[in-house]
Specification:
Blueprint (H helix, E strand, L loop, with lengths): L1 E3 L4 E3 L19 H8 L17 E14 L5 E14 L3 E5 L6 H9 L6 E8 L2 E4 L5 H10 L1 E4 L11 H11 L4 H14 L4 H4 L8 H13 L5 E5 L7 H16 L3 E5 L12 E4 L12 E3 L4
Parallel strand pairs: 5-10, 5-11, 8-9, 9-10
Antiparallel strand pairs: 1-2, 3-4, 3-6, 6-7, 11-12
Helix pairs in contact: 4-5, 4-7
């Protein structure tokens, strides 16, 4: 893990917490209930003012993010300005906008990799909520273990670790027996058309599409209450894209809140419920993005 306080970045090589914690050992058929039980808030996790409405899973209010480039003057780069939205359980919010409008930076803020410069981010954690605008690193890592799954654009893993172990690790880190974690990982990889002969190999030898499917399987293998997807099907063919859409739809049905960058692909129009349209900060017009209907 690295903590760069100059730019307020909290992340490890995968953008996740990879260390196991004291969580129950769920059976494959009862993982959702086990994770719900393990989501009980701990002392110091929740700020007294951190409140969400019933069913609300993520709330972003007047979020702004700037970066200081110390090798350029220094120069101040504004990545986000005035972003506000809310996502409830069972909903999917599509984040749209041109390149450079801050879509990926927004997801990294919600995941806790970037500390907001101003504004508020609340994420449900059991019966309470964590404010990512001021949470300490331990609170962020605990929130990820209990509530957040994130599929970034790129798979970054330890060399020589098999695809099966990479996908099984999130379940094992949350208390599942290793054999059950591997079985669930293999089943999900098979559904994503990653055959058994490849599951035992390191993803460094895979194609771009195969790596992306491993990355998605790692995020979807456990029942996260909040799912963040950064261009999850950018390198996939239509058949695999359809499978991913089905998996995300299933996550919604079990109550997950989904925030994703989809770039308006036809298949995703049947998955998302609303669109949040972003524009680059400082390009004129109203700084805050707006909602619009299902036509992307």
């Amino acid at each position: 893990m690295r903590l760069d306080r100059s730019e307020s970045v909290l992340a490890d090589a995968q953008g996740e917490c990879l260390r196991p914690g004291p969580f129950p050992s769920p059976s494959p058929g009862a993982r959702s209930a086990a994770f719900s039980a393990s989501a009980r808030p701990r002392p110091g996790q929740h700020a007294p003012e951190a409140r969400l409405a019933p069913g609300e899973m993520v709330r972003v209010e007047a979020l702004s993010k700037t970066f200081v480039l110390h090798l350029s003057g220094p120069a101040v780069l504004k990545a986000l300005e005035g972003v506000s939205f809310s996502v409830h359980a069972g909903e999917c919010l599509a984040v749209a906008g041109p390149s450079g409008s801050g879509k990926s930076s927004l997801l990294r803020c919600v995941y806790g990799n970037y500390l907001p410069s101003s504004g508020e981010i609340l994420v449900r954690d059991g019966n309470g909520a964590v404010s990512l605008s001021g949470a300490d690193p331990r609170a962020v890592l605990g929130l990820r273990l209990r509530s957040l799954a994130y599929a970034s654009q790129f798979l970054r893993v330890i060399p020589r670790v098999s695809a099966l172990e990479i996908v099984a690790e999130p379940l094992a880190a949350r208390g599942a027996p290793l054999a059950e974690a591997r079985a669930a990982a293999s089943e999900l990889l098979g559904r994503l058309h990653v055959p058994e002969r490849l599951q035992a190999l390191p993803p460094a030898t895979f194609s771009g599409g195969e790596r992306q499917r491993v990355n998605l399987a790692r995020s979807l293998v456990w029942p996260a209450p909040v799912l963040l997807l950064d261009e999850p099907t950018a390198s996939l063919d239509p058949a695999n894209e359809k499978v991913v859409c089905e998996l995300v739809t299933e996550a919604k049905r079990r109550g997950a809140a989904v925030v994703g960058i989809f770039h308006g692909r036809e298949a995703w129009s049947r998955v998302w419920d609303s669109v949040y349209e972003m524009r680059p900060p400082g390009t004129g017009g109203a700084p805050a993005p707006r909602f619009r209907g299902r036509e992307l």
